[in-house]
TrEMBL record:
It comes from the Eukaryota. This is PXMP4 protein. InterPro entries: Pmp4. The lineage of its organism: Eukaryota, Metazoa, Chordata, Craniata, Vertebrata. Pfam families: Tim17. GO terms for cellular component: peroxisomal membrane.
């Protein structure tokens, strides 16, 4: 046992010494990026998939758990692959040109987005829509910071909120098929299901009756 413990400690010392080598920093950063992408993707997707599956999906418990695991795995894998690709291309471009420039980030992310998130599926669609909303806010703020757009005299957020909610409810009521499925499910629960009840049980306690009355 003592010999095995000594060997393990020696291995840990060697690993820590390797991690301190500056010449391997770029490659090690790519590997840690892969690890962080996988962990973060799982942390983000697992609770979301758990809630959405048990709220809106039918099926057996086994089917629901399988769906949650599959969604979590897909999100975790894709984010890990993307971070790995992005950081790898960033390191390669920096090494080839001898310095880091802004275009490197855009180019590396475009390649990673095409390769990893290019497939049109529910997970990728949710991620892209999440990013799109933040990009629009970020570009708006950048335009003001750079002077391309004058600084608003009043906070524009109330107007933005009004327009977004007005648009999404108009789409839901009259062009529902254009909305993403999980958003359709959420809005159906909020705005359609609240129009239907039979007695106190499905008015206050349950959303829908499960009996055959």
């Amino acid at each position: 046992m003592a010999g095995r413990g000594d060997a393990l400690r020696a291995l840990l010392r060697a690993a820590n010494a390797l991690l301190q080598q500056r010449r391997y920093h770029a490659a090690l950063a790519v590997l840690k990026g892969f690890r962080n992408g996988a962990v973060y993707g799982a942390k983000i997707r697992a609770p979301h998939a758990l809630v959405m599956t048990f709220l809106f999906k039918s099926g057996s418990l086994r089917e629901k758990l399988k769906s949650i695991a599959q969604a979590t795995y897909t999100h975790s894998r894709n984010l890990a692959y993307f971070v790995f690709t992005y950081k790898g291309l960033m390191a390669l471009q920096s090494q080839l040109q001898g310095k880091k420039i802004p275009f490197h980030s855009f180019f590396a992310a475009c390649i990673g987005g095409w390769l990893v998130f290019g497939e049109n599926n529910p997970i990728n669609s949710q991620i892209i829509m999440y990013l799109l909303s933040r990009i629009l806010f970020g570009l708006s703020r950048l335009a003001v910071e750079k002077g391309y757009v004058p600084q608003p005299k009043q906070d524009p957020f109330p107007l933005v909120a009004a327009l977004i909610w007005g648009t999404v409810l108009w789409l839901f009521e009259y062009h529902r098929q254009t909305l993403q499925p999980s958003l359709q499910s959420s809005m159906t629960y909020l705005y359609d299901d609240s129009n239907v009840w039979h007695d106190i049980s499905d008015f206050l306690i349950y959303n829908k009756r499960t009996d055959s009355k």
